[in-house]
Amino acid sequence: MKTLIKNGLALLWDEAGWRYEKADVLIDGNRIARVAPSIGAEDASVIDAAGKLVMPGLINAHTHAYMTIHRNYADDLAFFDWLDKVQQVEDGMTEEDVYWTTMLAIVEMLKTGTTCFVDMTIKSAKELSGPRSAAAGAVRDAGFRAVISRGLAGVSDSDESIMKYGQAVREMELFAGESRLQFIHGPHAPYSCMADYLQKLTRSCREHGIGQTIHLSESQAEMEGVAKEHGTTPIQYVDSLGVFDVPVIAAHCVHATDEDIRIMAEKHVSVAINPKSNMKLGNGFAPVQKFLDAGVNVCMGTDGCGSNNCLNMFQEMNAAALVYKGAERQAQCVGASDVLKMATVNGAKAIGREGELGVIREGAIADLILLDLNVPQFIPANNIISGLVYSSTGGEVDTVLVDGKVLMENRRLTTIDEKEVYEACRKIAERLQMARAESI
Predict the structure, then answer these.
(1) pTM, whole model, 2 decimals?
(2) What's the CA gap between 35 and 405, in Å, rounded?
(3) CA-to-CA distance for 57 and 45, rounded, in angstroms?
(4) What is the pLDDT of residues 357-392, one digit of tens each?
(5) Which letter does DSSP use for residue 400 in this model?
(6) What's the Rg (C-alpha) of the chain?
């Protein structure tokens, strides 16, 4: 099947940087076959992109999709108080709950231009024959793209840790044939995973040929706790255990030291910054310009709705381009072009899909979004790259393609029944609230 996107303005990336120009984009199957000023293809279905920007779909490099259930719930709390409160809700969630709350996340991400996310979830799918197979099942059913990790904590030989690890590995095997799903391990953090468990998961990564994602140096309390117990920083501690000997996406890294940054650059660790979550939880501002100067691959995530309240990557780009300038008191740092690259090109590199995702070029996978430029925030169109970062709300997203298939057209979803998702999530919230009330 061929699809031709005609008459649009295409956002293109190469080593010289970003540019936008009038171009048609021909898709054959799930790949971009050609990008040119004018393309004719009589055998292709046509999407008229007149007045629209055609750009790569955004990649959310760190989130907890199921946490849509926590939206506007545990706000204005200190970090560990917040963590305790959301944990109480998560303890009551089922595999089917995770399916629906992840589906709600996918609806929000589709409507705001994200086409792929890196997830740390709390349940693993037990079987494919069941109707609601946790986060991976939601991704499969929606036609979306994701990198799934099961959040893991504990010691390697505890019954619970062994069970959760086994479930995560079985889920990888269940969905092995799904081209839009990748799996990695998800050790939660150095304060919630014992050394032997971190080493076991790293060995498993090598065995299965996968990477892992982990929260690192997110809060001052974490820094002090690891320093007291291990005499070093969280980043240096996990490096001493060999965690960085496989591909790693390190989330947050708010309190990374100069030595931490040197290690991450040397070990090719990708850092997923989460500026809105870090601000909301009072954790501070990551040294992003130092990461960039050191050559660290910086990507971007929203974190979950419990600590951000939304999954809108355009809002996250805007925050990133503003707050680090304020933190550094330097208007030239972390520019719009850098931020846009974090949300696309660098995100693809972090998940091992560099050149395939996050770009528009021949041979790349057709994960694309079309934005309506005929809106006040883009008029006049003096600099569209700046507009995407400083002006866009995400509401300009009109059409979304994932793997060459249209998942949203004219802001109408084609694979998801929104009303069904909303009703399911409302019922889950009601049940979990009742369970909390009964436990008091």
Answers:
(1) 0.96
(2) 18
(3) 20
(4) 999 999 999 999 999 999 999 999 999 999 999 999
(5) E
(6) 21
